[in-house]
Amino acid sequence: MKLTRVWGVRTSWHTEDDGEFYCPECGGDRAYHRRTGTRRLTVLNVPLLDRGPAGTVVECAACHRQYGPEVLVCPTTARFSAMLRDAVHTVALAVLTAGGASARPTRDAAVGAVRAAGFTDCTEDQLLGLLAAIVADEGRFRRSDELGPDSFAEAVDGCGSWLSIELHEALEPLADHLAPQGRERVLLQGAHIALADGPYLPAERDVLEAVGRCLSLHTDDIDRLLRAAATTS
Fold first, then answer.
1. How high is the mean pLDDT of the chain?
2. What is residue 198's DSSP assignment?
3. Given strand 7-23, what is the order of strands in its sheet?
4. Amino acid 1: pLDDT
């Protein structure tokens, strides 16, 4: 017992940086400290010899629970909301780009979806302004009515097209943090925009299939969801 009190190993922690993260223990966004530890042999509680590194932890400033660095991969609530907002905005714009912008019901549905996602001050003029800028950029994207039946699908998946870049950047990171039902909901929001003025245009269908793939949905599920949306619209 006396030896136990005399000798020991203590971990000293050094804070490297801090920020905000989603704490699983608290169930919300909290401040954190990212800290690295060093184990030291102590005699009478006095640190003497270095016993090696103790690794890196992320410590919640509120509950003081420690996690591995991988906990920072999960977005904060605020960041997740922004990701979802951007995803719906991108999907709405992609559907309009595919040919639905000429119909008022489609434009109204797109504006409504974007506002409901969090861009409450979004206007039709703003969406149409972005659409005009995209169409004008002939080097990266060509109008769907100038493309053949197969070339539009190729433009959607082509790594150089605006549509492909935007969909991949907005949807793929979000898909990692959404349950299947949430990913399906994002796709259905796009489907409802496309169906606001009638059945899917071929280009709209191509875009929505690309949306589903970016959301990591199975091909059969994409087809099922799009058919169900068309049946109930």
1. 83
2. S
3. 7-23, 28-43, 46-60, 66-67
4. 47
